[in-house]
Amino acid sequence: MYTSLNKISMFTFVCVLIFCSHSPAQTRQSRLDQYIDTAFAKNQGLKQQQFDLDKSMYALKEAQAMYLPTVSLLGSYTKAAGGRTIDVPVGDLVNPIYTALNQLTNSSKYPLQKNQSFLLNPNNFYDAKLRTSLPLINAEIRYNKLIKQQLITVQQASVNVYKRALVKDIKTAYYLYYQALQSIGVYNSALTLVKENIRENESLLRNGVRNGTALLRSQTEQQKTNAQLVEAKRNTANARSYFNFLLNRNLQDTILIDADVTTNALTQPDTTKGTAAREELSQLRTMQDVHKLDYKLQNAGFIPKLSTFIDLGSQGVDFNVNNKTKYYLWGVNLQWDIFTGGQRKQRAAQSRADLDATTAQLDETELSLKLQLDQANNNYQSAKVTLNSAVSQLAFAGKYYNDQLKAYRAGQLLYLELVDAENQLTDARLQVTAAQANLQVTLAEIERDQATYPINNPNSK
């Protein structure tokens, strides 16, 4: 029994020493940082964000390719019958001449000709060509490229936003798993005390000093603590599964906890950086630029479009290819939309409305992010006070239990009062564990709200 008391005193001393320490650790959360790097490489949600970024990169390359020539192979074949014709009076023109010649030569060397009728629709006709076209003046291509460049920046910001949210989720899951592990230790320690009480009550019952009521109550406490221990193990398994899910690992993989996981928790975080580094703000500012470019794009519709082309091909009948069927054709195309019924004007007005909406959203987001940071800082201050209070309560509960145990041994205390002191000690331990995890979670929230975690380090993907 005295060994258990020494354990209680040592536990209280260690808690006070760890939780109240303000000295920074040089290797703080090294394993946690490694887990975060693993999540950056394997998390499925992050991979989806990366795929969207790759899509934006391909869209930019597509926009850049619009400046290059386009080479196309074109071909057609027509088979026709009926339709409009062109009548050529060949016989009416040459037959009088041929008749006169036959009479002069007293021969029939010049046969009479019939009038001809030619079908306008080409029959058995082919046209195959290689067309090369190149834009010379096209403002829409230029603005389209600039918009695609800005959208890449927007998508990169989206990836970073997801990364920061993932970091916060991983840290929260990590600390909750640590809390669940500590709960198991608390209940195991409580179970050790209960077993010691059972052993002592059995001894007192055998010696006729006490009746069996205290033994029955201690056995009841044992069953209750066993049930609580099972629930704590279940919570630990669930916390481990969720943490591994975020890392896209096997749900049953072991999670290593840093030895200094609780160090420096009470050090006041620096909140002077504010929310200026938040990617959400950069994202919205870039979207403002996108809408401005889109507005210019719609207004650029009045600028003429000029392009050139050259065709190299062959056309004829019966698929014959010779010097007479081969041809080339070069030209310049001009398109100038002088009147479009106000379409460009309305599209430009839509872009202006999108710009105004994004500006209003940016203002609201800036205020919202400042509010989040202020609330996170308040939560941290509250969590720090709660942790200090919980540590003090644990020290008092340990002393109170020792005093009650001495009184119970001296026969001056009912066993129910000793059980109450024991439950207070267990609750105080659990409160310290919960308060410590909550404090770490609030630190993760402040880190997220200020965007201070180095997500672009060389190990981050």
How many domains is the backbone divided into? Answer: 2
Q: Tell me how many strands there are.
A: 6
How would a crystallographer describe the biggest sheet?
Answer: 4 strands, antiparallel
Low-confidence stretches: 1-29
Radius of gyration: 43 Å
- Give the overall silhouette: elongated
Ends apart, CA distance between termini: 54 Å
The residue-averaged pLDDT reads 86
CATH architecture descriptor name of the largest domain: Up-down Bundle
The CATH fourth-level homologous superfamily of the largest domain: Outer membrane efflux proteins (OEP)
Helical stretch tally: 9
Arrangement of strands in the largest sheet: 1-4-5-6
Order of helices and strands: HHHEEHEEHHHEEHH
CATH class wording of the largest domain: Mainly Alpha
- Beta-strand portion reads 5-15%
Proportion in helices: 55-70%
- What's the CATH topology label of the largest domain? Outer membrane efflux proteins (OEP)
Helix/strand structural class:
alpha+beta
Plain-language structure description:
The protein has 461 residues and is of the alpha+beta class. The protein folds into 2 domains: 2-70 and 138-303 and 340-450, Outer membrane efflux proteins (OEP), CATH 1.20.1600.10; 81-121, no CATH class. It has helices at 2-19, 30-42, 44-65, 90-105, 139-206, 213-246, 279-299, 343-409, 415-450, and strands at residues 70-78, 85-88, 116-119, 125-137, 305-317, 326-335. Strands 1-4-5-6 form a 4-stranded antiparallel sheet, with no helix packed on it. The chain has a two-stranded antiparallel sheet with strand order 2-3. It is elongated and about 165 Å long.
